[in-house]
C-alpha cells in the first residue's frame, strides 16, 4: 500500500523553501516523510504551456510530481475561485466573496487536468489523500476516469453552514462532488455537521450519523483535528531560543526589562491582524503602567498579494501599526513591530519560547497550528500564556488557553493584561494541560488515525515503511 498525497502546494525540501508559519505544507511534509509515497500538486510556478505529463523526482522516501499552471490558470483557479470565492466564503466573509464564472471554469479545468496527469501515476493499491479547498472536485474527476482506489479528502479550513455555503453559485453541484470521496476529514465536529447539513439541504442527501449518501457511494464525514510534531518543535525551540533572543534584545532592550507578546500569521484577513494591533493599542491605553516594558512582535509573511483584499490588508496593517506607534511610542520604545517576512521554523520556535504571551486571535480559522506551536515551544518551568480566539478550530481542544472573542477589542486587551499578570503556578498548570493535549493528538496521531479510517482498517501501520 502506497500513500499518494495531492495538494495545491507541494514543498520540496531540496529547494530549501521556507514554509510559512503553521498550515498545510508543514503538516503534510511531516506526514509524508514518515510514511513515504508520492506527493502530487502544483509546482508553484507558471509556464507558457500547460504541463502535458509529469515526471516524479525522488528525494529520500518521498517522490514529488509537480505540475506547472499557465498564468491564466493561476489567475482563475488559484487567485480567483480558490482565494476570492471559496476562501472568504468558507471563513464566513460573504461580503468579501467575489464569484466569477470564468474563474469557476478555470478551477474545474485545473482539477480535470490534475486528474488526467495523476491517473497514469497511480497503482492499484494506492491510497489517495487529497487536501484542501483548491481540489474539492478532484475525486469526482478521478472517479470519472475509472479510479476505484480509496480516496480521502481533508479540509484544512472551516466549512460554513448551508445558509452561507448556499450563497455560492453552483454550490449544489460543487458540494455534491464531495460524495466521490470515501472519507472526508474536517477540523471540528461543527465543520463536519455543516458539510453534512449542506449535503442534506442542497443535494437532498440522506444522513445516518457520520455517513452521508447522495449517489452510489456512501461517504463518512468525521472530525480529525490536525496536530503538529510536538516533540521536534519543542527541541527546535530549546535549541534556538538563544539565537532568537539576541536580535530581540538588540531591538527591545534587555530581557529582564521588557516582555514580549508575539503574533505569527500569514498576512491574511482571516487572521485578525489589524484587530489584534488595535487590541494591543487598547491594552496600552487602558493599562499605561505597561507602556515601555512590553512590545508586540507581529510576524506576518505576505500571502496572496495579487488578490486585492490582501493588498488592502497589507496597507491597512502598516497604517494601524504606524498610527499606534506614533500615538503610544516613546523615543526609546516602539510598542509594535510588524515584520512582513517569513522566518525559518527554528527562528520562530525561538521567538515563541522567548515570548510571555502568544496572541492567536483569528476571526475564523480551521485549526491554527501556531497556537499548538506556541505551546510546544514553551519552557515548562516558566511558560508563556496563550490567548486564543474562540473562532479557531484549536479552541475546541485548547480550552485552558485564555479564550477570547476577537471581535471584542476590549476583551482581547484585558486578556493580554491577564496573561502578563498571571502567576507562575497558574501558567504552569494551564501549560501542562495544553501540552498534554497537543502531545496526545500530534501529527503522527492525526495521520495514523485518518489513514486507518480511510483504509477501512485500524492498520495504518501496514503502510509501506520508509525504504
Ligand atoms: C492555508 C490553507 C492552505 C494554504 C496555506 C497557504 O493554510 O489551508 O491550503 O496552502 O493557507 O496559502 P497559499 O495560498 O500561500 O498556499
Automatic annotation (TrEMBL):
CDD domains tied to this protein: GT20_TPS
Coiled-coil stretches noted in the UniProt entry, renumbered to this chain: none
Domain of life: Bacteria
Similarity comment text for this entry: Belongs to the glycosyltransferase 20 family.
Designated name of the protein: Trehalose-6-phosphate synthase
